[in-house]
Design brief:
It is a single chain. The protein is mainly β. Helices cover 3% and strands 33% of the residues. The protein is elongated. The chain starts with 21 loop residues before the first strand and ends with a strand.
Length: 174
């Protein structure tokens, strides 16, 4: 015996493709890439060691969606009560291993855009509070690199008065 099934199917609405958002850390001051300037090595996924005894650490939270604008950059292990400049670059410097700059490594470069200055709290933490893709002129599909330059005026290990976090690379989606 045979059977057959006949039916009509009607769909309405928008087709939504899966979006891939990629957020990765790179350019640690742990000696796995470019050496820190005065032997001030720190841990994995941190920048070179600062006067607080740790390396500044940058992470990202939220959605790397240009349309949502909800991604936040979060810095920790900075020097308490000191200013930090959140900035964006097009390139990962030194083949993603960084180049020496101050007491640390500059990881983001090329077409640098200053995004925001935030002061670290008493625990050495701060977060961005802006719409990053809007402020940075980001388009869907762009790969951008982020980092925080921060002051370390009194306890700077190399005596240069400033340092940087590790880098964060973001591939932006819709």
């Amino acid at each position: 015996p045979t059977s057959s099934l006949t039916f009509d199917l009607s769909l309405s609405g928008d087709l939504v493709a899966d979006q891939v958002f990629d957020i990765t850390t790179y350019c640690s001051g742990d000696g796995s890439g470019t050496m820190c300037p005065c032997g001030n090595l720190a841990g994995s996924e941190e920048g070179c060691m600062n006067g607080s005894g740790t390396g500044g650490k940058l992470t990202a939270s939220g959605n790397a969606s240009v349309g949502a604008g909800s991604l936040s950059l979060n810095a920790s292990q900075l020097v308490p009560s000191q200013p930090g400049l959140y900035f964006q670059g097009n390139n990962a410097t030194g083949n993603a291993a960084g180049i020496t700059f101050g007491d640390g490594l500059r990881c983001a470069g090329g077409g640098v855009i200053r995004l925001q200055v935030r002061f670290a709290d008493s625990a050495g933490s701060s977060s961005s509070s802006i719409n990053i893709p809007a402020s940075g002129g980001v388009s869907v599909g762009d790969t951008k690199r982020y980092q925080v330059w921060y002051r370390d005026p009194n306890t700077s290990p190399c005596g240069l008065g400033f340092n940087l976090t590790n880098g964060v690379e973001v591939v932006w989606g819709a």
